[in-house]
Amino acid sequence: MSVQISAHIDEATKQQFDKVCGAIGISPSDAIDLFIRDVVCHNAIPFSAVAQPEKEVQSRKPSKLPFGRGCMKGKMWMADDFDAPLEDFEEYM
Length: 93
What we know:
- By secondary structure, the chain is mainly α.
- The protein contains three helices and no strands.
- It has a domain at 10-61.
- The protein has helices spanning 11-24, 28-42, 54-59.
């Protein structure tokens, strides 16, 4: 059984997120699912989250993230035997 969650983000970030997900070849929903599963698997947020002093938080302007080819390098892993035939399906081959 799956449940629905919701989050509020600004439109520009949503559009960039959709674009990056499309370039990777996954849906935004699948990307969020991967993030949640990684948090659960490692019992931690998969990046550093450090609180900043109050003055710095108020004065900081939102930055544009550098999305582009190669920005996910080192973030994903695929087993060496990913394309190997599965024993369960030998009778179909």
